[in-house]
Amino acid sequence: MISSENIEGYFGSKAHHDAWISEAIWGHRLERQSLEAILLEFLGVAEGMYRQKSLLQHTSPGQNIQYQANQSLQLRNLLFNNPMMEEIHRNSDGSDEEAWTKWLPEIESSANVGKHLHRNFEYLRKRFERFSSLVNVVKLLRGISMEAASERDWDSRFIFPIGPAALYEPLRITADEVKSDRAVFTRTGELAYLMLTRASEQNRTRLRVALEPTFNPDTARNRLLLRLISLPEPDRGDTKGGTYLPYRSHPAYDRFANDIASVLELKLPEHDAYYHLQPLIAFHLYLYAIETANYWVGKNGIPTIVCEIVADRPDLVRKASVNSYSQNDALGVRALHVLIKQLLSDPDIEEKLQSADLDNEAKTEVLFQHLAAKCSLKRAKVRASNPEEFRTEFTLFSEKLYQDGTGEGVKGLAKASGLASPRGTTRHRYAPTDRLLQALVLANVKQPIEEGAFLRLLFEKYSLVIGPVEASQVVNSYLYDDTDFKRNLERFTQHLLGMGFAHRMSDSCTYVENPTSPEL
Amino acid sequence: MSIQLSKGEKWVRLLRGYAPVAENDANRAERVDELASDLGVPKISFQHPAKELLDAAFPTDSGVFKNVVLTGTAGDGKTALCFDLINDLNRTIPNKSEGVQTITVETSVGLRKLTVIFDVTAWREKSNGHLSPSKISTLTRMAESVYGFDDEFFILAVNDGQLHEVFRYLPREVPEVLRQFETEIIKLHSKGQKSFNDRLRLINLSWVSSEEIMRLCLNAILDRPEWKCFQEESRNPLFSETSSLRRNYLAMNQPTVRKRLATIARLADASDHHLPIRGILCLITNSLLGHPSSSDTVLKPGLETADVLQLNPSHLAGFHRNFFGENLRPVNRNKREVYRFLPKLRVGDETTGDLDELIVFGSRDDELKSLYDSVIRPDPYSQRNPELEPLVESYIRGDMTEEDISRFLSEVACERRRLFLSVSDKDMEELKLWRTTVFHHAGEYINQILDNLKQDRPVPRSTILKIVTGLNRIWTGLLLTDSPLDAYITTGLDMTTSPISDILLAQIDIFGDEQPGVEIRKGSHHTIPEFLIRLKGKESCFLLSLPRFEFLCRVAAGAMPSSFSKECCTDFMALKQRCLRDLQVSTGSRVINLIETTEQGLVQKTPIHLADV
Lengths: 520, 613
Description:
The structure holds 2 protein chains of 2 kinds.
Chain A: H1 22-26, H2 35-51, E1 67-70, H3 73-80, H4 85-91, H5 96-110, H6 122-127, H7 131-142, E2 145-146, E3 158-159, E4 171-173, E5 178-180, H8 188-197, H9 201-211, H10 220-226, E6 236-240, H11 251-265, H12 272-296, E7 305-306, H13 316-344, H14 347-354, H15 360-375, H16 387-416, E8 420-421, E9 429-430, H17 434-444, E10 449-450, H18 451-462, E11 464-465, H19 468-474, H20 482-498, E12 502-506, E13 509-512
Parallel strand pairs in A: 7-11
Antiparallel strand pairs in A: 1-6, 2-3, 4-5, 8-9, 10-13, 12-13
Chain B: H1 7-16, H2 29-39, H3 51-55, E1 67-71, H4 78-90, E2 100-107, E3 110-117, H5 133-147, E4 152-157, H6 160-168, H7 176-191, E5 200-204, H8 210-222, H9 229-232, H10 244-252, H11 255-270, H12 277-289, H13 303-311, H14 319-323, H15 330-334, H16 337-345, H17 353-361, H18 366-376, H19 388-397, H20 402-422, H21 425-430, H22 442-454, H23 461-476, E6 486-491, E7 503-509, E8 518-521, E9 530-535, E10 538-543, H24 546-556, H25 561-564, H26 566-583, E11 591-597, E12 603-609
Parallel strand pairs in B: 1-4, 1-5, 3-4
Antiparallel strand pairs in B: 2-3, 6-7, 7-11, 8-9, 9-10, 11-12
């Protein structure tokens, strides 16, 4: 997996990076990003590729995948930068003329539509018979705002992706310029897309067939969005790219692709599939992150994930779950150390560092130059007076860079996917939410499957441990108690039964079933 | 040992064989036969409700046999059914020591070979982690018979869990026909289907109604002539007038009580929780014989019992306490599925103002006194705790310690349970006793839905309206009227499962002129009825289980769906997704109709055009 044949270097400039360390292991980049933003970024790049007629074409790590994202600025101004509309409507006492006359100058003075569009909203007057109809549409669309509780500026607020026109990128808009905001779309959604482009041809075809209809601009809901945009298509920004996924092949790619395709193939009504895709994408990104780290530390596959189905009281399952989360959380730093060791072990450099001709300052400079070439380390980032100190400082700097960036991102993925939580305790542990469990059933169950077989599947495919059979194989004896794991399994069953995702035949047999499967 | 026992004591010894004690002999059918034979007392027996079904697969007049897979919960009577069949077809005594027996059956068209696999316990012995070659060969022959034309037939009697276990331990390389058989049988089992072709039938004993089993078991135990021991052996403390066994027997023998017990079994069915024969026999025998002061918490013939009965007040072993397993030690109780089910009903655990007022103030309040005297006071079999009255007295005076309060609350809950099991149907309604359980609307579910469907009568409009009210509120997220004319199928602009789904997709006239838009009908292979929604020739239906009905009623009464139960809410959202798919409704391409509610909960539509004016 981490052999040089399977890894290709980054195609772009690393000038803007303090150092290229986590990126070399996990890609550019995994960073903290909300569940909603991951889905929107993922769909956004997929929609861009769909327009370029290259949706889910195979990619390689050395390739710069570029696309133009929608900006839909008029739509966004109307939804999130239009505070006076309802008040003007209320005060106009039903007079359309008065409302239009007051509102149009108001929006035209406050809106910011970038350089390519004019601040002219007259087109709306022609499209809506009455001002109240416009107000109704705006209210309706505001009703599907995502992350409504967040305090983001209007240029980084989203609505549910009911059509391609709603798949726009977050922006930083000032009087002078309109720029993509990489603090909201951190590339994690783009990384998810790249993972899928490296899945098998069969899985990519399945995904393409299932995704294409969602990008059709001629659906009823997209037409509703387009009524608020003056042009026949949404306005778009400059071409963007630069996201990097190091591995040509990875077990995560097909595992992820298969699950996403399975959920989309259920053909759930309207956009219901997105509800399940959100936790699934985050879950698979998390698995990719810890599995990759596991390979770097010399092991294979996904490390064990012991899950507590939340209990009222602490027991050994909780301890095992906390322990398993902590161990997997530490894998990132361990992987980083392996990479640092690789970076620093170079015979030429060693020879120079042993040389009596160079003083400490010169040796430190040699080390810096080596790392600057190898991982784009910037001069001001690590300061030391001798090589030994430099090594230590570089390691500390790398760890901090990881903890603040990818490390935070990976923790965020575990939490956002619903896999990890500190519920009822002070420490994080694996305690999957009902929503994640539902998504896993939808992704894996077509025909009813006996619960034991389902648990085996979860274990073999994702290393998830819930019941005593799997736990007895992998959980340390001092953290294993048969009764506690049986109770954990019973809670799991009860959750599935309560949600209508299982059917109990008798005390010895429960079928897990997917109530939305056409084959049920 | 049996020589020293009296007739009554032998009968009690036999009953203990079914009770939740260590030497529970009913765990295996063959052991019951041995016990009954040792004691010289016929075992508890009745014709199994599935016997006719099994017999029908082996008609000797036509010789057109079927292969049968007989599944169910452990203790559902599979082995006993197989033994009876072997006896009936071959007039031989079954060979109980082996798990498999092959017999030859004479039919009008010639001889048929029948292999009955009635016990796969021995199959656990594996060779290299797989079933042994001889077992694989037997299964393969069965598979070949299912898909072939042989005159050899099979019965495979296994628990639901064992069914999967048997196939799980097949090696990778087995004949294709066996894999085909595995796929088909698991499919039939999981989907509740009964047959795949003319040569295979699945009989799942979990489909047999628990209510019917309860009635049969009650009759089989309470109507036995051995109970004359109460007259003939009244000097034996076990059968004396003050014995808890005698009092419990008399209490349980009341028609109202028998009916109530059958109703509880009916609730189990309605909650999709099958009670097997063994579980019900355990429940009944423990209700009769349970005593918390007895060494293993169940009375036994002998000297110890005389002391237990003499030294402890009989109310401690009251039938209403034993029935819920109060006499059992937690470990013993939790081992048995039936006692894991009963607490889920939470009988007596929920407080109800009117009933509690009657229990506490009934004997002191002139207005309540006559009702108290007719319903609460009667206790002909001394089941009530005599300490309840002093506790009530202290409660009224406000003179209680923390410990007293906890004891008082526990005894009031117990009194609610006594009343729940013993009062008439009329008093059950008047005192709103269903409200002391988790299923406040169980009475309505039974009377208005199950009873009417059983007698091929339609479910009353008021019940349908209540269901539709709940459904409208859950599926739209809006507080719609409680007297709807229509069922509203809606979606959110984002998802169909959006908490507020205010885009109207279809409006279904509940009672319709030509055909009702919604209907409750008998379940096709289930004791649980189905709720059906029709739209333009298309149908969607879901099982209307008691928990689902309760959720709908609570929401119809004003509860917020997601705060009342997140799990139920998720369940109904999945049902909604299926319903939309089955009815094939989606948003219009030109106009969407937004719905809002008026103050009266009526629907107001606002059209929103998708195209420009």
